[in-house]
Structures are given as C-alpha cells and as structure tokens.
Specification:
Radius of gyration: 17 Å
Structural class: alpha/beta
Largest sheet: 8 strands, parallel
CATH superfamily: Aldolase class I
Strand content: 5-15%
CATH topology: TIM Barrel
Number of domains: 1
Number of helices: 11
Oligomer: single chain
Number of strands: 8
Distance between the termini: 13 Å
C-alpha cells in the first residue's frame, strides 16, 4: 500500500519566527494522530533550520523548495543539496511550475536536480504539469510524459520509487481553479501508465503520485479518493493551519 503524503509548499512566506510558530502548532496538532499519513512542509531557505529543529523526532518531514545541481562552487545565491542535507532536510522540490515559468528552468534542469538529490541523499518531489494553452491544444499528456522522461530517464529502476511525482496543472496553481477529480485521476493514471511502460512493474505500484493545484480543505477529500492520487502538494492552503489540517485529515 502506498501511504498518502501531504506536503505544504510555503513558497516565499513565513520567515524563521513565523515558521517556527507554525511548525510548533502543527507538531502539537498532529501529536498521536494521522499515523497512516505522511506529512511534510517546505519552508523558504532561511526558515529551514528553525523548522528542522522544531520538528525533530516528530515524523513530520521537512523539504526544501529548490537546490542547485552542483555540490559547491562559485554560484552566488544558490544552495546545494549537500548543504540542505547537513541542515537536516529530507526532501526537495524539483521542477516546480513557478521555477519553470518564472525562472526559466527547463526539463534539463529538472534532470540534473533530480540526480543532485540522489547524490546528496535527498528525496526528490518532482513536479510536472501542463499550461492552459497546452491543455487546450490537447498536448497535456505529451507534455507530462516528456517531463517525466527527461527527469527520470537516467535513474535505475530501484531509485524511482524514492521520487514523489507531483502533478500540478499550471493553470490551477494560485488561480483558485482546480482540475476536477476526474481530470486529475486521468493524468495520474497516465503517469502511472508511463511508469509501467518504462520500468519493472514494482515501480508503478510503489511510486507515490501527488496532486497539486489549488488543493484546499473543501476539495481534498474528493481528490484523494481517486485511486491513483496518493497525496497532495498544497500551496496557499498550507499557510492556514485549519485548512492544512483538514487536508491531512482527508488523506487519513
């Protein structure tokens, strides 16, 4: 059985003090509860040490929002996977649509960053998804399978289940729009079908697929009931304790 995995991506919100306070509240709220659901949060870089310290020994995972592909070097303003691992981070987002759309990251960047995660001992959360124009043109499946092939094509079969794949339709991120449960399930089934065709059968059975795109407490249960949706990558709703806890409860 694939355990549900709910991750809150805080984006550029919550400095160290606010992050520590939220993490403490989350720790208290989840103490002794939702043992069947894996939970993580992805704070901004400056807030990672405070959150890691606060959530130590709680089982709540900490993710970074990005990393540089190199282990070290003259890359002003960048952070390596090795640094993140030393800081106690367990997961790292790769290829988020905002990195692709706003900062020009490509499929090639996603590939090198997935490999950098494995090199440094981090678990990647690989984000894939199509824009509205790509969906309207009927290219959504081609776009997503292209992104998967680029990012995961050089991995060994036994590495792939360590990657969480987050399908995030770009047109549903921060817009208030959400793919219908059926639309989300169709793409998750496409992703699992690609895994089945590309790797031995155990890979598709054991790799977790998240949905991301305006997930909130009011729609989480319906999305998470879909057979191929194993969790959620939550944006704005992850900044609100009540909403985030409602999504976690829906996964249980």
């Amino acid at each position: 059985m694939r355990r549900k995995f709910i991750v809150g991506n805080w984006k550029m919100h919550k400095g160290p003090a606010d992050a520590d306070s939220f993490a403490d509240g989350l720790k208290r709220a989840l103490a002794g509860k939702n043992a069947a659901v894996d939970v993580g949060i992805a704070p901004p870089f400056l807030s990672l040490p405070a959150v890691v310290a606060r959530l130590k020994h709680t089982g709540i995972q900490v993710a970074a929002q990005n990393l540089h592909a190199e282990a070290s070097g003259a890359f002003t303003g960048e952070v390596s996977g090795e640094m993140l691992r030393q800081a106690g981070v367990a997961y790292c987002l790769v290829g988020h649509s905002e990195r692709r759309q706003l900062f020009g990251e490509t499929d090639a960047h996603a590939e090198t960053k997935v490999l950098a995660c494995f090199r440094s001992g981090l678990l990647p959360i690989l984000c894939v998804g199509e824009t509205l124009s790509e969906r309207e043109a009927g290219h959504e499946r081609d776009v997503v399978t292209r992104q998967l092939t680029a990012a995961l094509g050089k991995l060994q079969a036994d590495q792939v289940p360590s990657v969480t794949i987050a399908y995030e339709p770009v047109w549903a991120i921060g817009t208030g729009k959400t793919a219908s449960p059926l639309q989300a399930q169709e793409m998750h089934a496409t992703i699992r079908g690609w895994l089945e065709a590309s790797f031995p059968a155990f890979v598709a059975r054991s790799t977790r697929l998240q949905y991301g795109g305006s997930v909130k407490g009011s729609n989480a249960a319906e999305l998470l009931r879909m057979p191929d949706i194993d969790g959620a990558l939550v944006g704005g709703a992850a900044l609100n304790m009540e909403d985030f806890l409602q999504i976690i409860a829906a996964a249980g």
